[in-house]
Prior knowledge:
Blueprint: E1 3-15, E2 28-39, E3 44-55, E4 59-70, H1 76-83, H2 88-113
Antiparallel strand pairs: 1-4, 2-3, 3-4
Amino acid sequence: MPIKNFELTAIDAERYSKKGESRKNVKINHNSSVTKIEKIDNETNSIDFRFTANYTGMGMIKIEGNIVHSGGSPELAQRWIEDNKMPNEVAKEIHSTIIKNCIPQSVIIARDLRLPPPIPLPKVNMPGKGNKTKPAKGGMEVA
Length: 143
């Protein structure tokens, strides 16, 4: 695995709404972006990133950090400096790593700020009298 190190360097979060205010249909937008790539040596690059979860009109969570990536293209940093692009394989791996590490952290922060978790919650359907919905078959397992 080419990811050698992952670290968070900054967390900024804010809830705009007051206690007791509720909003319906809150839209949560996620975004991960690479802000800077620097070459450490021929096989290793330092990649700065920013992850945001924006709750429309309700709040926001911003997480910044650094990834040390090895085994990638030696000219990755130079290509980034020239046109802010990286190979699709490397981009997929970097953004997947950011999401896998920042979503759990943002769930904890959202709980502390009393914001909805920035993930889709599984729906629970209970069969019963008058409820004609069938129980879900398969799906996400929650522990």
